[in-house]
Design brief:
Structural class: mainly alpha
Shape: globular
Order of helices and strands: HHEHHEEHH
Distance between the termini: 22 Å
Mean pLDDT: 90
Largest sheet: 3 strands, antiparallel
Strand order of the largest sheet: 1-3-2
Length: 108
């Protein structure tokens, strides 16, 4: 029972933070939609629809955190300066994010 609950919670957190997961990978390398799908499956073992991935990528683009680089063959996405700054804040405040998450799920 416990492992099932933890597994469901892990999946829920994964879904909620998928935009940050993608931003973090874009902090390392540029990604196309297929690259993002492959990355998510290979690293986390979750199959995510192309519609979900592209929806998140386009949302991040509208927010000014990433931009697309369209060539004749492929569209890839890269972080903007604003996206890099956001990832710096997130990565430099891991402890605070962990404490916040812990407080949010603490039942009292």
């Amino acid at each position: 029972m416990e492992s099932k609950v933890i597994s469901k919670l892990r999946h829920r957190l994964f879904r909620e933070f998928l935009d940050i997961i993608l931003l973090n990978e874009l902090n390392i390398r540029n990604l196309g939609g297929y690259d993002a799908l492959s990355f998510v499956y290979n690293k986390y073992g979750y199959r995510v629809s192309a519609g979900t991935i592209y929806s998140i990528l386009y949302s991040l683009e509208r927010r000014g955190l990433i931009r697309n680089l369209t060539t004749a063959q492929k569209t890839v996405f890269e972080l903007t300066n604003e996206g890099e700054e956001m990832m710096d804040v997130i990565l430099n405040n891991n402890d605070q994010i962990f404490v916040l998450t812990k407080k949010l799920i603490k039942l009292q």
